[in-house]
Amino acid sequence: MIDFRSDTVTKPSDAMRTAMAQAEVGDDVYGEDPSINALEAQAAKLLGKDAGLFVSSGTQSNLLAILAHCQRGDEYLVGQQAHAYLFEAGGAAVLGSVQPQPVMLDTNGLFDLDQLDSAIKRQPSMHHFAHSKLLCLENTHDGKVLPQEYVTDAQTLAHEHGLGLHLDGARMWNASVAGGQAPAETAAGFDTVSVCLSKGLGAPVGSVVVGRQDLVDEARRWRKMVGGGMRQAGILAAAGSHALSNNIDRLAQDHANAIRLAEGLAKLPGVSVDGPHTNMQFVSFDGLDPAVLAEKLAAEDILVFAGSPMRLVCHLDISTKDVERALGTFSSAVTELVG
Ligand SMILES: *Cc1c(COP(=O)(O)O)cnc(C)c1O
C-alpha cells in the first residue's frame, strides 16, 4: 500500500516499538513518568523554550496554548484557513469563551500585515470590543514555509500591540529542514509552540506544547481540566522521543520524494501541479473526475483523497521506489481516462 492521503498515516517502526516496549513509566499526573519528563525536556531544549507538555494531539495542544494565553472574553487572531480556527471544532470558543478573529491568509499562507494590523482591536477601554490577546501563526501551512522575514515582521506587529505569540508548528519540522534552520530558530520569538509527533515524525500519538514556564504551567492545568491527564503514558512518550531523535533530518528525503513526484506528474497530459511545498503537493486534472482516478489508483493499492485539487503527501512510509511505482500507475490511469 502506498498511502499519499496524509503524513498522519505512518505506522511505528520496529525500532520505535522497541523503544515503547522498553519505556520506563510512572504516574504522570504525579509528575513521575520518567519517559514523559524526558520527552518534555527534550522537546523544550530542541525548540529553545523553558518547558514542554506532552498532550494527546495537535488540536489539544493548540487549545491548551490558547487557553493559557487568553481569558474569557479575550480573542486570538488567526488565519481564516488556519487549523487553529477552521479544523478544531471551535474548541477555544466553546471551552474557553475565547473569540477567534480570523483574518484571510494569501495563497502562500501569509497574512497581509496591514490587514492583520487593522483587525487588532486597539482600544481596550472600549467596552464594545473583545480584548485582542494573542496572534497565532501556522508553519508550515499546507506544506508552505513561512519566510523568516515575514515571521519577524508579524512578531514585531504583535509586540507593538502587546499580543502573545503562538506558533501552530504541527509540521514545523518540515519548515526547519527545508529552510536549513535549527528547530529552535524556527520556534524563536514565540511564547508557545505546538508541535506534532504523529505526522511526518512517525509517532503513533501525541504533540508537545513548549514555551514560557508560566504558560506551560497554565496549559498543564487546562490539560487536566479537559481530561488529558494521562498516567503511564510514557509508552507513548518514548515513541515521541524516538521520533525526535531519529526522524527529523530524514524529512529531507520526503521533500526530495515530493519533488520527484511533482516532476513526474507535471509531465502527464492535463495535469498541473501546485508545489511541491515541503512534503505536499496539490494536483489538478483537466478532463477527468478525480474520484474515478482515485478508484483506479486504489485498485493498484495507491491511496489518495479524491479532492480537487488532489493533495498528495510524502512521508516516512513512502520510499523513493514507491514514488516511482506510483508515477507509473498515475501515468497509465491518467492516459487511459483522458484518452
Ligand atoms: C494536524 C494539524 C493540527 C492538529 O493535529 P491533530 O493531532 O490532528 O489534532 C494542528 N495544526 C495543523 C497545522 C495541523 O496540520
CATH H-level superfamily title of the largest domain: Type I PLP-dependent aspartate aminotransferase-like (Major domain)
Counting DSSP H or I runs of 4 or more residues, the number of helices is: 14
And the CATH topology of the largest domain?
Aspartate Aminotransferase, domain 2
Strand order of the largest sheet: 2-8-7-6-5-3-4
Overall spatial form: globular
Taking the alpha carbons of the first and last residues, their distance comes to: 27 Å
Mean pLDDT: 97
What is the CATH architecture assignment of the largest domain? 3-Layer(aba) Sandwich
Radius of gyration from the CA trace?
21 Å
Order of helices and strands: EHHEHEHHEHEHEHHEEHHHEEHEEH
Helical content class? 40-55%
Q: What is bound: which ligands?
A: pyridoxal-5'-phosphate
Specify the CATH class of the largest domain: Alpha Beta
Largest sheet: 7 strands, mixed
Percent of residues in β-strands: 15-25%
Q: Number of folding domains?
A: 2
List low-confidence stretches. none
Structural class: alpha/beta
Overall number of strands: 12
Give an overview in words.
This protein has 14 helices and twelve strands. The strands form three sheets. It has a seven-stranded mixed sheet, sandwiched between helices. Helix 7 links the parallel strand 5 and strand 6. Helix 2 runs parallel beside helix 11 and helix 12 packs parallel to helix 14. The relative contact order is 0.17. The site of pyridoxal-5'-phosphate has 12 residues, from helix 3.
